[in-house]
Amino acid sequence: MSGERDFYGVLGVSKTASQAEIKKAYRKAAVQHHPDKNPDDPNAEEKFKELGQAYEALGDEEKRAAYDRYGHAAFQSGGGGGGRGGFHDPMDIFSQVFGGGGGGSMFDDLFGGGGGRRRDASGKKRGSDLRYDLEITLEEAAEGVEKELEIEKYASCGKCSGSGSRSGSGGAKACSSCGGRGVVAQQRGIFIQQATCPECRGSGHVISDPCGDCNGDGRAQAPERVSIRIPAGVDDGTRLRSTGKGDAGLRGGPAGDLYVFLHLEDHDIFQRDGDDLFCEIPVPFSTAALGGELEVPTLTGRATIKVPPGTQGSTTFRLRDRGMTSLSSGRKGDLHVEVQVEVPTKLNREQREKLQEFTESIGEKNSPMQEGFFEKAKRFFDL
Fold first, then answer.
1. What's the pTM value of the predicted model, to 2 decimals?
2. Which of these, 218, 219, 220, lies nearest to 164 by C-alpha position?
3. Going by fewer Cβ within 10 Å, which terminus of the chain is more open, N or C?
4. Phi, psi (5° rounding) for residue 273?
5. Which of 291, 335, 332, 297 is nearest to 317 (CA)?
6. Which pLDDT belongs to residue 189?
7. 135 and 22, same structural domain?
């Protein structure tokens, strides 16, 4: 037992802590590491058991005195503490501290009636919530769309109408293996582990005349088509909830919910920032110099912008109300169009000569951006 952690350290309290401080520390840590709250953490159950042992040892004045004197040996059979034996079920300790073991307690509020409390007499249990990840286009997000999803889920058994009973009259009774708790205790050395009852599969009840199609569960897996309306303005990561479209409940229990997580596909032209859209459009050198009109794409068709003479590269034009619909207000964002002046890359001899004549004719004074830059950089050339 020399490798075991100090119980005071497990709870994060000092050796002079009061009973109230020990209880408060246990309550906080037990909720944090409860297995039902950490289904993906393989170490949560061991942490939870360790917390239960620490609180059982330190939460009682007599046991605490024995622990302070003999350490972990006080709880080993035949140890210096008088042969107190192993620890109790950590779930029972948790239930006692949080007022569990009955209905309507804080224990029920924290874990939805789980953790080993007795089920109702029918063995009904709410179905699981389901997640569905859906990709949509930017156009669909802008205007809203209705999608039909095909989901593999538990549906109510048609033969027994969800009751799980062949006769349809129910016939549920408390499981004799777990006493209606849905979990059974298994001894592992000094530890006691809880596992789902193999007889009732966690429901706490068994059906005396189980339905042949669903084996008494009242449900069976089947594909189902679900229609969902996606409102205009949704963004990447938006979560939509469809009540009652999750797994059917066990033996007629209420169905869970379906959560649809939206993912926006990358667009070839537009980038989104909130309710505004941004894009870059090439403009011919001649149009930038002389001015003219430029057709630009929008999510709802084409639009025209007026390019004034002498437009420089990276100039941005704003088209009001051509962006995304706001999910909260319903108003439209703007479309920001940044022009990129396109310089010819292949010139023949005649074109090069004419361009050279043009350059000489306008002189340096007709390049305000270049003139301003070199004025600022002049001191670097004088070094």
1. 0.59
2. 218
3. C
4. -135, 100
5. 335
6. 60
7. no
